[in-house]
Amino acid sequence: MMGLNVTETIQLPTPRFESLHSLESTIRLRRSIRDYTHKPLSLVEVSQLLWAAQGITTREGYRTVPSAGALYPLEVSVVAGNVQNLPAGIYRYLPSQHELAITLKGDKRSPLSAAALRQDFIRNSAAVLVISAVSTRTSWKYGHRSDRYIHMEVGHAAQNISLQAEALNLGTVVVGAFDDDRVKQVMNMPDEEEPLTILPVGRKK
Length: 205
Hints:
CATH class: Alpha Beta
Number of strands: 7
Number of helices: 7
Largest sheet: 7 strands, antiparallel
């Protein structure tokens, strides 16, 4: 959380660890979805998506995705606009506490959409997950190989989110087309942090 101005935190609902959906069925049904209804997400659903992305799974602090050296360079933020019991704003996920820390207030979906080459489905989603990385967490150990490891890791996290969304009957898509500097500005990211991918989430039409 270095470089971030955190004023308050929100405890997330406890994630579930079992469901009626098999892994095989979610893999088979997963698709890139860009059309969403105007119905809100629940905080329970947001909690589940964040846990799938970076949640803690062991007493030692290991997470839901593999990370080179267990160094965990990724950060996950939520751009909330239409989530029940969650005021519009940008929140940082805190895996160790399974909490959200608010970093900016107000609905930032439209400026984020503009920073992502005006892809309107980002603005029309209920919430957007933005995955970024602090590369120095990995590069001190792995040097020039760290870029490869970080990009592998963001792929793992994005796939987990995509499969979890399908298990919740939600739609999402992995977005890589955006202006890095403008996304950093919208998200108010620290200098040492870089955006890697954007995943809008909403209810399927």
